[in-house]
Amino acid sequence: MSADHTRDPCPVVILSDFGGAFAMGVIGGCVWHGIKGFRNSPMGERHLGAVSAIKARAPVVGGNFGVWGGLFSTFDCAVKAVRKREDPWNAIIAGLFTGGSLAVRGGWRHTRNSAIMCGCLLGVMEGVGLMFQRYAAWQAKPMAPPLPEPQPAQPLRA
Amino acid sequence: MSWLFGGRKSETSNASSAAEEPFLNDSESQKSLGFDPSQVTNVSSIISTPGALDVSRLHPLAGLERGVEYLDLEEEKLSTMEGSRSLIPSRGWTDDLCYGTGAVYLVGLGLGGSYGFFEGLRNIPPNSPGKLQLNTVLNHITRRGPFIGNNAGVLALTYNLINSSIDGLRGKHDAANSVVAGALTGAIFKSSKGLKPMGYASGMMAAAAAGWCGLKSFVL
């Protein structure tokens, strides 16, 4: 199994994940709330509506994404440090903790349900990732080179 | 379209003249083929040529004394742009963007959160039970922290995008780049509020960018 060389080692990768998730959320929120504000505004004020919707909502979406990604990365690193191994269970456990800690102010039942939901979501994502990995490995499996066609013996000339 | 104007005529004539007399210049053909064709007569002479079948060069791990070249992975290379060295080693604009935005967002979140914490402590209703006190403090933290964090994060995101674009256009990075990127960021951030707030925000962001450059040059 090859290591992922595009990601940094654990303590600093949390910062990068915070920023990456935040950037993703802000850019996605710009598109989403831009379209939503444009459609929900009356004719003649559509561009103004789009801009004000982006200004009001896109940073919030970015913040939600960023907090989720950063917390997940933090828990992922913590779980890695405790378990001292890397497998799909890391992400699932980190997802459980993330979902739980984000919902902790809603009471015990809300925390539990949110944690289970988040863990299941991460489990599905990890499963799909494993499937893709298997598929890529199956596609790139070593093949025997085709044997050359047996040539009929040429009659000797001259 | 060079074939219309005959731009390649000289090249083709050169190539054809070289093809017509391939073996006239011995040293040239030796350079291109790697051996002297006039000396090769049969297979055994090729095999017995010194250096052709050297065991130490054919081994799969040959050439290790030059260093482990196959470990020089492409995607792990650090950015080679002039003046792009920062506090954390960076592989390019995506790293700058992620680390810059994440760090500024976290700092904003922490500052806003601590401000909200003290504000909440001051605003605790008198003679309230512990649960209400905790709730008051948490409400103030979650009101102040994410607001400041989000705005700081958006500023950092815009700044990093503009900065990396200017870097890419100019091919190098220096303090003037950062200041210009900061000024543009402030102007864009307040662009819907009118000219005067735009000017203020622009100046503040340019000053912040200049301060960051100074800090970076001081630390590095």
From TrEMBL, chain A:
Chain's role: Essential component of the TIM23 complex, a complex that mediates the translocation of transit peptide-containing proteins across the mitochondrial inner membrane.
List the record's Gene Ontology CC terms alphabetically. TIM23 mitochondrial import inner membrane translocase complex
Which GO-annotated molecular functions does the record name? protein transmembrane transporter activity
Q: What is the name attached to this protein's record? A: Mitochondrial import inner membrane translocase subunit TIM17
Query: NCBIfam families, from UniProt?
Result: 3a0801so1tim17
Q: Does the keyword Transport apply?
A: yes
According to Swiss-Prot or TrEMBL, what is its membrane topology?
Answer: Multi-pass membrane protein
Q: Which GO terms describe its biological process?
A: protein import into mitochondrial matrix
| Predominant cellular place of this UniProt entry's protein | mitochondrion
Q: Which Pfam families match?
A: Tim17 (PF02466)
The UniProt keyword set, sorted, is: Membrane, Mitochondrion, Mitochondrion inner membrane, Protein transport, Translocation, Transmembrane, Transmembrane helix, Transport
Organism superkingdom:
Eukaryota
Summary of subunit composition and partner proteins:
Component of the TIM23 complex, at least composed of TIM23, TIM17, TIM50 and TIM21.
Q: Which InterPro entries match?
A: Tim17 (IPR005678)
Automatic annotation (TrEMBL), chain B:
The segments labelled Disordered in the record are 1-35
**UniProt GO molecular function:** protein transmembrane transporter activity
Which domain of life does the UniProt lineage start with?
Eukaryota
Q: How does it sit in the membrane?
A: Multi-pass membrane protein
Instruction: List the InterPro entries hit by this protein, alphabetically.
Output: Tim23 (IPR005681), Tim23-like (IPR045238)
Record field: compositional bias (Polar residues) = 26-35
Keywords, in A-Z order: Membrane, Mitochondrion, Mitochondrion inner membrane, Protein transport, Translocation, Transmembrane, Transmembrane helix, Transport
According to its UniProt record, where is this protein located?
Answer: Mitochondrion inner membrane
Q: Name one GO biological process term.
A: protein import into mitochondrial matrix
Instruction: Show the ranges annotated as biased composition (Low complexity).
Output: 12-21
Which terms in the GO cellular component ontology are assigned? TIM23 mitochondrial import inner membrane translocase complex
Which function does this protein serve? Essential component of the TIM23 complex, a complex that mediates the translocation of transit peptide-containing proteins across the mitochondrial inner membrane.
Q: Which family does it belong to?
A: Belongs to the Tim17/Tim22/Tim23 family.
**Oligomeric form and interacting partners:** Component of the TIM23 complex, at least composed of TIM23, TIM17, TIM50 and TIM21.
Q: PANTHER family in the record, alphabetically? A: SD19278P (PTHR15371:SF0), TIM23 (PTHR15371)
What protein is this chain from? Mitochondrial import inner membrane translocase subunit TIM23
